[in-house]
Amino acid sequence: MSRYKVMLLAAGCLGLASAQAMAALSKADQEFAQKASAGGMAEVSLAQLAQQNAQSPQVKQFAERMIADHTQANNELKQIAQQDNLTPPTAPDNKEASTQQRLSAMKGAAFDTAYMQHEVADHRQDIAEFQREAQSGQDPALKAFAQKTLPVLRQHLQMAEAAAKK
Length: 166
Description:
This protein is mainly alpha-helical. It has helices at residues 3-23, 27-53, 57-83, 94-104, 108-136, 140-165. Helix 2 (27-53) runs antiparallel to helix 3 (57-83). The relative contact order is 0.15.
């Protein structure tokens, strides 16, 4: 085999290997991106509801923080999704929509209690999912996003637990 043919074959193999590596995200990475995107949208939507229906200044302040932090995270995740050729969801999932509907019927102290209990449980679950992605995610951008977002989620959980106690 001529030297030229060997070089072409090697270049072709390298090109094929890199194309396959970039072709698709792992199923776990795809699921993480979808859940994180839908969950982030739900956080903003519920926090906007809290701005209207909450009684406690602490709950309203928490909601402001949720809007700011989750809007920023949602924007970062959209950019990653575009780079990875993913189509993010356009609305929260059915579970979150059900929570939104249930909470929208409440006002005042009842809303405050139910919203903060939801936020504590939701952030505990989010932290577990983000830790899993941060430790074993295959996509470098999603893994870095999870690592960067984890401390913020932990801070949200602390704030939610403090507000839920009052």
